[in-house]
Amino acid sequence: MDLFDDLPLPTDVAYASLAPGAVLLRAFACEADATLLQALNGIVAQAPLRHMQTPGGYTMSVATSSCGRLGWVSDARGYRYAARDPQSGQPWPLMPDCFTQLAQRAATEAGYAGFAPEACLINQYAPGAKLSLHQDRDELDLSAPIVSVSLGLPAVFQFGGLQRSDRPQRHRLLHGDVVVWGGPSRLAFHGVLPLADGEHALLGRRRINLTFRRVGESPART
Ligand code: MD3
Ligand code: FE
């Protein structure tokens, strides 16, 4: 069957509920880390990580790329999903089988069987990089969850409510942690505090976060 039916993933999963609809699968991606990193290196060789401009005119401290049918793009015109990398004019790299397999198995564990990601956004944090509180609402299909995979240095993740002003909870996300965000948590405000310096045995001085998304039919809003 699938080339990555043998992707090493735990059968006995440690769960924690972070909020209604949000499930943390602690260390779910640990054993698959080297396979995922090798696939990631292939993607960023074709579609390099870059610091995008926000619609407000800032340069993001996080460097991003994508793979899959659609990729996430930000520029002066706004945020959107696009079928091509604006930097090369080429389609985004294909989603590797090991990525799809991991996202589907994690979604199934969290109660979202049948999740078929169309886009994987890759975020790279160097020490000091952060992501301000935001909602993910560039997708049309808000019934599907988002699956996020943390690799490398630990991060402090902020997770709030449906209003920007709701005081966020803080969680440490560690290498290999996978979180599935569905149901009422799908539109919650969230962000990442500035990354503390450190050295990770496999990834070095950085954190990588992969988010697997279902975008929905006509992706471009802007
Ligand atoms: C909760 N990424 O790419 S992952 C993003 O660590 C993003 O790079 C962060 O927020 C990172 O948009 C956080 C966890 C996450 C991702 C998407 C969510 C949490 C979410 C969407 C809705 C609610
Ligand atoms: Fe987000």
Write up this protein.
The chain has 222 residues and is of the alpha+beta class. The chain has two helices and 13 strands; from the N terminus they run ββαβββαββββββββ. Strand 4 (71-75) and strand 5 (78-82) form a beta hairpin. It binds N-(carboxycarbonyl)-S-(naphthalen-2-ylmethyl)-L-cysteine and fe (iii) ion. Fe (iii) ion binds next to loops. Fe (iii) ion binds at residues 134, 136, 190.
Which small compounds were modeled alongside the protein?
A: N-(carboxycarbonyl)-S-(naphthalen-2-ylmethyl)-L-cysteine, fe (iii) ion
Please indicate the percent range of residues in DSSP E strands (runs of 2 or more): 25-35%
N-to-C series of helices and strands: EEHEEEHEEEEEEEE
Distance between the termini: 39 Å
Uncertain segments: none
What is the CATH level 1 assignment? Mainly Beta
DSSP, total strands? 13
Chain-averaged pLDDT: 94
Number of domains: 1
CATH topology, by name, is Jelly Rolls
- Put simply, the count of helices is 2
Gyration radius over CA: 16 Å
Binned, the helix content reads 10-25%
Main β-sheet, spatial strand arrangement: 1-2-11-8-13-6-3
Instruction: Identify the overall geometry.
Output: globular
- Under CATH, the homologous superfamily reads Alpha-ketoglutarate-dependent dioxygenase AlkB-like
Secondary-structure-based class equals alpha+beta
Largest sheet: 7 strands, antiparallel
For the record, the CATH architecture stands as Sandwich
Compact summary:
With 222 residues, the chain is of the alpha+beta class.
Write the layout of secondary structure elements.
Elements lengths: L14 E5 L2 E4 L7 H14 L16 E6 L2 E5 L2 E5 L14 H13 L9 E7 L5 E4 L11 E7 L2 E5 L9 E5 L4 E4 L8 E3 L14 E7 L9
Antiparallel strand pairs: 1-2, 2-11, 3-6, 4-5, 6-13, 7-12, 8-11, 8-13, 9-10, 9-12
Bound molecules: N-(carboxycarbonyl)-S-(naphthalen-2-ylmethyl)-L-cysteine and fe (iii) ion (FE).
